[in-house]
Records
---
Amino acid sequence: MSDTAVIKLASISKDDADSVMQQIKTITSSLNIKTRGPFPLPTKKIKLATRKAPGADGSHTFEKWELRIHKRLMKIYANDQALRQIMRIAVPDTVQIEITLM
């Protein structure tokens, strides 16, 4: 029985997200499974400015921080055996993975 799985990755590290997608691609290519992607989705940027000096006196200087969340999307037309192998991939702590079966 062939299912369609949609894999979504979100990571603060672009290299970690790309390495997980590369591992998925090697598994699917070794099993001759039809895939679509990986598609890079727009990067979400979270910006925050905080005051350097905690008190009210002194100059008004700010530190600017930015967090980037990189997203990837991939469709896999796979069977149960391939999905089990994909679920065994060691995913780093910086990567969140979501697998949806259709």
Note: The chain has two helices and four strands.
---
Amino acid sequence: MRKLILATAFVFGGTVAAMADDIIKVNTAKSVSEAMDALEAAVGNAGATVFARVDHAAGAEKVGLTIPANQVLIFGNPALGTPAMQIDPRAGLFLPLKVQAYEDENGQVWLAYEDPKETMDDLDDVEKAPVIEKMRGALAKLTSVAAQ
């Protein structure tokens, strides 16, 4: 049954999005490195700036521990972030945006990110601002492109 569901998902766009609380997940058949390389390229092509790429598995190795492949890309675009911070400067606590690529216990690779609308829902009027929908759309598009 699981294979049928996954096959159907790949036929309809190659990704499955799932929401658990405020985290949106998109699966991919790529490795963590391949997915992050694709995401980094997509971010650059969209005109955003990559600030950092954090390799959590490499960090774990440095202290003698192991975890499955796990990386985070930190990126942003002042055209999206600045309007949110104009409404409430505390939006800067949640910016720049981040996407994580990780391998789960079954070997499945996921791209995951926090939904900006949910993340900023306690800020003064930020969650209702049109820029939040733009952030949500950008994250959905970038992760979809990277997953394929």
Note: The longest helix spans residues 130-147.
---
Amino acid sequence: MIDGPYFVLTVLGVLGTGLVAGVFCGFSTFVMRGLAALPPAQGVAAMNAINVTAVRPAFMLVFVGSAGLAAVIAVVTFVLWPDEGTVELLLGSALYLFGSFGVTMIANVPRNDALARLEPGTPEATTYWPTYVREWTAWNHVRTVASAAASVSYVLAIA
């Protein structure tokens, strides 16, 4: 069994990736559906407001902190190569770093940036809104599953 500071890092990994999975799950299961039900001008304005508030310290500490922690766990695992939990630790780190953090950077953030450039209520915003909701939500499903799977993988490493 993993113990000492390594155990603490892994438990923090479980907590961080699980919290992020919960946030993403909320967006996938009801927030985006609620926003999609609004008239496009209201949906665009609301999502732009959400995207501004998402980059505040409370969420960013958990989201980016979990990426940093996943990287530390991966490096420590490669260096120490523990007798137990190695595959689970490396898998959990890869799932979070690529499937959650990476997908955010290459799929969700560019869509958020494109939406932010549009003025709510304009024909361009009205046209883009359904595409944005569909594509952003599909990539968010990937982030949700990857974050949850990372958390489960870390739990299996310490179980």
Note: Residues 52 and 77 are 36 Å apart (CA to CA).
---
Amino acid sequence: MAWVYLLIAGVLEVVWAFTMKQSHGFTNLKYSAITLVAMIASFGLLSVAMRTLPLGTAYTIWTGIGAVGAFVVGITVLGEQLSALRMLAAVLIVSGLVLMKLSAE
């Protein structure tokens, strides 16, 4: 169950990163509120996952999901540039996440 909590926490990290961008420096109340709620939920679920998962594994997976997820949202929703180097960086992050998951078993 810890892995499920960690996955949800990572998705919520993507949500709060996106809504923080949409809040325009916390000047948009709706997006600011969503950001804060998603942050609290993400940190809460991360802490629950860390009860059983090693710190390094849990934190790495959480930040990796957030980084790659924000990268994908930036490209698909916000129209950010996709380059070969950015794509390679995302592939390397995902590779690291897979290795971290495999090493935790």
Note: Residues 2-103 form one domain.
